[in-house]
Amino acid sequence: MSVAHTGVTPQVGGAEPVGPCGEDDCGVRDVLDRLGDKWTVLVVVELAKGTRRYRELQRAIPGISQRMLTVTTRRLWRDGLVERTVHPTIPPQVEYALTDVGRSLAVTIAGLADWSRDHKDAMDAARRRWDAEHPDETGR
Amino acid sequence: MSVAHTGVTPQVGGAEPVGPCGEDDCGVRDVLDRLGDKWTVLVVVELAKGTRRYRELQRAIPGISQRMLTVTTRRLWRDGLVERTVHPTIPPQVEYALTDVGRSLAVTIAGLADWSRDHKDAMDAARRRWDAEHPDETGR
DNA sequence: CAGTATCCACTTCGATACTG
DNA sequence: CAGTATCGAAGTGGATACTG
């Protein structure tokens, strides 16, 4: 599975340790293009708790529209992160569940959540400080 | 620092292990609102290699416009992830460097990059398979 | 060099209405 | 229940020109 954070070793000086990747973006943008939208991670986090039906997801994720729930699940399905099972009953019943790849993504997302919890306060404080010190700054 | 991915333990069944967070999004969206844009992670990854000047960043990140480089660095600065040092010389010289918080973020981002590298192929394959199996699907 | 300012194209998303 | 279709508002980023 290799979740070793080798590479971008935090360091102070201005030397060039030549990060994990030669010269490009390490491919991080690929992931963020998938997770960066408004709802994807919320769906993944919810599905990490277990299999869910369409309506269950919608109820578990307040504010998501039918349209966005559909496009989000469809994208995750298409990318092989989510498995979609249709029970051809009446009324129809569709179940969504994370695949193995999807579950590994959920673990990574948990790492993000950890970071968020650990540093949210510091960031909020920094922002308040900055705003106080730069009252009439453009483009906030 | 606590980079323990407790919580969303990957598991197969449909039971409810009650994730890391009671009911909400675990706050992951907070991070992604900051990282999800087109350039932020690229700037962070570049700064993880060492202190950079404005032009150096621009050259290191092909395609970024002056506008976006400015708003991206400004945001990171405002959030306390990046330190901005102005040398009042002529011509002016401005240096950007990650703060401690910024460096911890770089570590987390490296985790994302790891995941991306480990699963990019699987996702691309899944997508091709899906596209082949669903030729005339709407909204791709 | 290191920005700011302005305008515009494109994307993303929400609301609403309808369907098998 | 589980979607699809359509439209419009808002956000986001790129190009260009100008400045201390």
UniProtKB/TrEMBL annotation, chains A, B:
The keyword Nucleotidyltransferase does not apply. Keywords: DNA-binding, Transcription, Transcription regulation. The keyword Hydrolase does not apply. PROSITE patterns: HTH_HXLR. This is Winged helix-turn-helix transcriptional regulator. Signal peptide: none annotated. Residues 26-124 form the HTH hxlR-type domain. Residues 1-20 are annotated as: Disordered.
